[in-house]
């Protein structure tokens, strides 16, 4: 049983992780908490749904395409909205993404109605047994997908010039700027990548989860805790934090009681913040 | 002289016209009567809220316009005793949240000056919306939330048409008992699964009580947060208990999530009973064949048209407007506007106190309802409907069919439960 619970927790955590990594990256580079992250996951789920309905693109196979679309959308969003408020007061930066989130959710409700939709006949379906452990194939596929995206981001940040520049910005903004790094351009790229992560997560989720305008809210909230747990600004930390949350959720839900599982997640967050305010792997100044 | 008589005649003529006109003016332009309502129109329960609202809109359409259906207020326009005054709806959005619900209700009552209020859908929300109405002294008619505690507060302005969870929980186990006798099997192990707001908790309390009464052994008693994104832990707990009977008090998103997870983990009860969220058309739409053979408690089914021909006619109207059959949730919410219209019509007044008095004297026959109740008559103390009754439906071929009580059954039930392909 414990093995079953752990597997479930890790699978759940990986998907949370993908949402959290984007969130963490954006915070690290721009110092804004993207409250619209959950809503963007929702938008990606709808994009995935429409692509499946009209051109029968499987959500799992379509993940790179949707990530790319969301990357473009992220860049546009940055140019149109985020760039303008970055110079504004702190409160404006806080509230703009919050406002965007409400806007996207209500827009989805207006355009596509509050109906629940799901993608029928995705290629990954069914369950199989691994020893004594039940594994749901769509969740496994989504988790593997998340890990691939995580590896890509890790590689990008560590090994490419652009990635190193992004890291430089998140460590010290003004020093990076003095070294001749183009902040504007890199901000846009980082924001785009962050949203692309949300896009990939949305697309992978769409293969087994139902889609409705409010679907992103809980994912966004959990991701926020995962990021805080892992350390604001650290993408690996976000992934690890998210997996921890997944495990706490399933183990705590089973042994302590399902009604407390979200309370447990937030409790563990509070404990970590008390013991280690930066989060598990944070290195940015809070 | 001649001139004088002309003036006199003209004055007289004018006076006659005036005498004729005055009473006509009173009835020729009846004012509209404002009534308020609230549903979760955004958030996780938004589809159900929209479904309930469609029932309400249908009800107002029938009351306000003339249709050739043998049903109260259908053939006439508006409220007959108030010169055909039409009902005007003021709608609020609770977002599925008790605090928001209360604030919205207060706003609608004080700003729009409604003379009656109804709706809410979630018991946890109705708990506070009804408080606001009680405090502001506006009659509140509830036809779609079932927690017993709502009518245990001694409220003066609050009335409930739908049977509460105590009756519905008893009926659930009665049905299982009936099935056991008919199938000559012995089912013992009962699992109850409930979302942990006001409504789910009250269903659980009632089920525990009746389980003891009917001699079922409670092997799992699991509560959870209805907005959960993953329910593996809950379902594993359920699987470990290996129950014969599962009763699930759920809203729609959690009903979908549990169904998918239970199927994935191969939880296999003999009898699977769902509530509330399972009635949402989006539920069957989303899980498809996995919904087959699930029993759902309800107070309405299209099968009632066999004994009530107007049910089919109203459903036809509904279908023309919304492109689908009327769901039991829509039918629940459809009822409250009629109870209010009936009270206003008898009161011949839109004063809240007059409407409240009229509600206390309500005596609607079964033929004035599309639901399975024997009528509407409020208990003088609790204001619960003493003639309320519930049904059990089973999802067969993607449709909700009435299967219990057996004398009202449209089709035989199918047993035991098995997952769809």
Determine the most extensive contact between two protein chains. A-B, 38 and 37 residues
Mean pLDDT of chain B: 91
Strand order of the largest sheet of chain A: 1-2
Oligomer: heterodimer
State the total count of DSSP E strands of chain A: 2
Strand count, sense and closure of the main sheet of chain B? 7 strands, mixed
- Helical/strand content category of chain A: mainly alpha
Residue fraction in strands of chain B = 15-25%
Model regions low in confidence, pLDDT < 50 over at least 5 residues of chain A: none
- End-to-end Cα distance of chain B, whole Å, is 100 Å
What would you say this structure looks like, in words?
The complex is a heterodimer of chains A (286) and B (421). Chain A has 286 residues and is mostly helical. Chain A has a single domain, classed as Orthogonal Bundle (ABC transporter involved in vitamin B12 uptake, BtuC). Chain A contains 11 helices and 2 strands, in the order H-H-H-H-E-E-H-H-H-H-H-H-H. Chain A has helices at 2-30, 37-55, 63-86, 90-112, 137-159, 161-171, 173-178, 183-206, 216-230, 235-255, 261-275, and strands at 127-130, 133-136. Chain A has a two-stranded antiparallel sheet with strand order 1-2. In chain A, helix 1 packs parallel to helix 5 and helix 6 (161-171) packs across helix 8 (183-206). The longest helix of chain A has 29 residues, at 2-30. Chain A is globular. In chain B, helix 4 (123-135) links the parallel strand 3 and strand 4. Chain B starts with a helix and ends in a 17-residue tail after the last strand. Chain B is an alpha/beta fold and 421 residues long. The chains are: A mainly alpha (286), B alpha/beta (421). Chains A and B meet through helix 1, helix 4, helix 9 and helix 10 of A and helix 2, strand 7, helix 7, helix 8 and helix 9 of B.
